[in-house]
Amino acid sequence: MENTDFYTELSIKYGELNHYIEWCRDNCTDKWSINILTEAGNQPGNYLFKFKNSTDYTTFILWKS
């Protein structure tokens, strides 16, 4: 993805990642991506969500709060 100005790192428990991905697919109006920093197992994994525009980023931050 070209623009990485809008990103957030999340700690997500095993089995909950699909919920975040589905939300992005359903609600983002522009390109977004996810990088797996560490996969979830017994401990939550770390994931970096990147957004091309500030509106999608802001909406995602408010939704996950």
Report on the structure:
With 65 residues, this protein is of the alpha+beta class. The chain has one domain (6-64). Helices cover 34% and strands 32% of the residues. It is built from two helices and three strands. It has helices spanning 17-27, 54-64; strands at 6-12, 32-38, 45-51. A three-stranded antiparallel beta sheet has the order 1-3-2. The longest helix has 11 residues, at 17-27. The radius of gyration is 11 Å and the shape is globular. The mean pLDDT is 93.
Structural descriptors:
alpha+beta; globular; 65 residues; 3-stranded antiparallel β-sheet; single chain; 32% strand
**Helix-strand makeup class:** alpha+beta
Biggest sheet character: 3 strands, antiparallel
Number of domains: 1
* Order of secondary-structure elements: EHEEH
Query: In which range does the helix fraction lie?
Result: 25-40%
Count the E strands: 3
Supply the number of helical segments.
2
**Average pLDDT value?**
93
Give the DSSP E fraction (strand runs of 2 or more residues): 25-35%
The strand line-up of the biggest sheet is: 1-3-2
Radius of gyration: 11 Å
Distance from N terminus to C terminus (CA atoms, Å) equals 25 Å
Q: What is the global morphology?
A: globular
Oligomer: single chain
